Amino acid sequence: MDKSNKPEDYLVAHRGYTQCFPENTLLAVQAALDEGAKYIEIDIQLSADKQAVVFHDRGLQRLCQQTGAIHDYSLQTLRDFSSYSPDRFKDKYRGEKIATLDEIVALFLSYPDVTLFVELKRISIDKFTADIVLDIVNACLQPIINQCVLISYSFDILELSRNKTSHPIGAVLDNWALAITTEYKRLARMNPEYFFCDIASLPDKGELKFLDSKIITYECIDPDKAISVLQRGVNFIETFDIKKMMQEIAGKW
Length: 253
Description:
This protein has a single domain, classed as TIM Barrel, CATH 3.20.20.190. The chain has an 8-stranded parallel beta barrel with strand order 1-2-4-5-6-7-8-9, surrounded by 5 helices. It is built from 12 helices and 9 strands. A hairpin with a 5-residue loop joins strand 2 (39-46) and strand 3. Helix content is 35%, strand content 17%. It is α/β, with parallel strands linked by helices. Helix 11 (223-231) crosses helix 12 (242-252). It is globular, with a radius of gyration of 18 Å.
């Protein structure tokens, strides 16, 4: 396999070290960094007062045991909620705050060699428009912009970013088959530096290549499966369990 033998060179900590800490929190991101992650992915939405916060779900129930969505509340109110993943951790992390993008940026100033994949969530794009989301997020990211890649399921915001900036982008599409058929022409025009897709959607055999993009698959905590697709051309694996994957892949390489 013509790849680095260092797992940290092709593993992406998906929402931080999510297996052991509440996802997308400062705690999870710092834990991933502490494990030596060189690539981390987070999700961004806007609060009612248009502040960028780090949060994946469309609703607050699963992670915070609150009603409504991120965009229903001001940042001040959101900071009173706990992002503690009670379904997985009970009350262990109650009190852990919803992180802001500004806090993530401040943290990454101490890690200039780590790449941050910043997913712009469609729920905020639909609520506030692509222009507003892109402008707010880009403004927040300026201190570390050269470490960042904007990614999204929304091709509209990626095309907007391509037209307005020179920063790398990543297109996210669950289904590999759609990428090479229905969506291929639009993706080819966009020419994203990265292409994200569900590992379960990959064909069972053959080389994996997509445009000139680096391929990133999600979600995987199985080292054998990760090695298999890396051997076929995948460039990066997103994983919730960055520590386990680093240790076990290193032992199998």
